[in-house]
């Protein structure tokens, strides 16, 4: 048994007969009363997201999860396929389990897949991912005068982001996968 104080992002907790992944957490120590941990958890099987608070004195049942580096291959609309680069074993994850990370996936991207008893649970992306700009409207004289210094560009995987006006088609950019924002231009 484990303490709620051991909770981290990605921790898998067995609770009410299901497996729940901790999406975010916050330790709270009020001036009066006992401390607790406020969590936002996602059910692995159903995708349901709930917010639960645990008192520090409670005990929880953590599940062992292994993390494997895998390469994203393709999706068929409902299932996303990943391959282990060492064993060439392929696993599929339902779209609902990775709907927050799915827009950032592109063919060949290396990700970390959380596995429990041989079943893939979730995908963790690199903090920054490099993309090629597929389409970018040209900058128009006067854009900066109005204070509008960004424009919408489409990346090679279909993702649309706001980027500075100097970004052109064919350039490579880094995107922060936690915020979904433009991070920087990649120099050749």
Task: Tell me what you see in this structure.
By secondary structure, the protein is mostly beta strands. It has no helices and 15 strands. The chain is globular and about 60 Å long.
Q: What's the N-to-C terminus distance?
A: 51 Å
Query: If you compute it from the alpha carbons, what radius of gyration comes out, rounded to the nearest whole angstrom?
Result: 20 Å
Q: What's the β-strand tally?
A: 15
**Overall 3D shape:** globular
Low-confidence stretches: none
Largest sheet: 5 strands, antiparallel
For the biggest β-sheet, the strand order reads 4-3-2-1-5
- What's the SSE pattern? EEEEEEEEEEEEEEE
Produce a short descriptive summary:
This protein has 188 residues and is mainly β.
Question: Main traits of this protein?
Answer:
globular, 188 residues, mainly beta, 0% helix, 51% strand, 5-stranded antiparallel sheet, 15 strands
Spell out the blueprint of helices and strands:
Elements: E1 12-15, E2 18-28, E3 36-43, E4 49-55, E5 61-62, E6 66-75, E7 79-84, E8 90-94, E9 110-116, E10 119-124, E11 128-135, E12 150-155, E13 160-164, E14 172-176, E15 181-186
Antiparallel strand pairs: 1-2, 1-5, 2-3, 3-4, 6-7, 6-9, 7-8, 9-10, 11-12, 11-14, 12-13, 14-15
